Amino acid sequence: MTRNKKIVVGIGIAVAVIVISWGAIEIATKRPAPSVNTFEECVSAGYPVMESYPRQCKTPDGKTFTEDIGNELEKSNLIMVSNPRPNQIIQSPLVIQGEARGFWFFEADFPVKLLDGKGEIITRGIARTQSDWMTEDFVSFRVELIFSAPLTEKGTLILEKDNPSGLPEHADELRIPIKFPKETREIKLYYYNQKRDREIAEYIPCDPEAVLPVSREIFLSQTPIQDTINLLLQGQVTQEEKEAGFSPMFPLEGVKLVGANLKDGVLTLEFEDPFSQTGGGSCRVRLLWAEVEKTAKQFPEIQQVRFLPEEIFQP
Q1: Under 8 Å CB-to-CB from 165, ≥6 apart: which residues?
Q2: What is the rounded CA–CA span in Å between residue 125 and residue 145?
Q3: Is 47 within 8 Å of 36 (Cβ atoms)?
Q4: Model confidence pLDDT, tens digit, residues 39-96
Q5: Count of Cβ atoms closer than 10 Å to residue 70 Cβ
């Protein structure tokens, strides 16, 4: 090939490379922008977020999306929550703290409920104050919710104004959007099953062998044993489980787990029982003991379970 031909070929190759590169750039620049219909989608697309409250995200075509913070601003002169904050990722147990006007309470408390993303109730609780609630000033409150992980990533925390009259014109509520962790693990809760008990021994009830497992999901945490026992104490079963014969011995008024220590395969669980709910007849106590012990022993590192105080779960 002559020198001139080589030059021509080289120029041709260079031009082809330039044309191909330009075409690739054109294609890239003409790609459709990601579809954005919510604040979360706007943030995920990498568009700028304005640090206002609530936050706002703006797309290149001028659309603005505002973060959902519930009705916090609307209710700020009636009730304020310091924990959890809107769109916070929550785990069980969830401690809810804040302040509300005295007239938000009735007899020093008001109801709280946690919903999943489908509007289904996950759990309920009662927020209480230790202060004088018969005032129009703000009064501090606290409540702890224990719950299993729902299937949805989002949910809503609702703090209701206590309304003993039941009249809709006196009803009010604070709604706080929250998020659930994505990572969970499956555990078992062991509850008494009446149908199985009758099958085992028709004339000798309360057989611990009738304490059977139901499956639940809990959030990944550093305290899976405590989280599982706390969930057991809630005594919540589905309608399907009830129809299958499950009849939990829990919940018991005032009974709660206050400590858990695992050493050399022995798990020591310390409970608070201010109203002596864990005693009674041998039949009842045997089932209470079995529900806790079997639930704890699902964890392979636990070979033995002890209870404190020692008189708990005793006839």
Answers
A1: none
A2: 6
A3: yes
A4: 999 999 999 999 899 999 999 999 999 999 999 999 999 999 999 999 999 988 899 9
A5: 20
- 43 Cα distance to chain centroid: 24
- Token digits of residue 66: 């505002």
Closest CA to 105 of 132, 86, 80: 132
Closest CA to 124 of 140, 141, 146: 146
State the Cα–Cα distance between residues 48 and 50, nearest whole angstrom: 7
Radius of gyration in angstroms for the set of CA atoms belonging to the chain, rounded to a whole number? 29
pTM: 0.71
Token pair recorded at residue 260: 């858990």
**CA atoms in the 13 A half-sphere facing the CB of 293:** 17
Question: Are 173 and 81 a contacting pair, CB within 8 Å?
Answer: no
Q: What is the DSSP string of 126-157?
A: EEE-SS--SSSSEEEEEEEE-----SSSEEEE
Give the N- to C-terminal CA distance of the chain in Å, as an integer: 106
Residue 206 CA to residue 211 CA, distance in Å, equals 9
Domain boundaries of the chain, sorted by first residue: 79-179, 184-308
Name 211's bridge partners.
192
Q: Exposure string (b/e) for 73-96, b if CB count within 10 Å is 16 or more?
A: eebeeebebeebebbeebbbbbeb
The 3-state DSSP class for residue 162 equals coil
Q: Do 122 and 150 touch, CB atoms closer than 8 A?
A: yes
Looking at CATH, the fold of the domain delimited by 79-179 is given as Immunoglobulin-like (2.60.40)
Spatial separation of the C-alpha atoms in residues 47 and 306, rounded to whole Å: 55
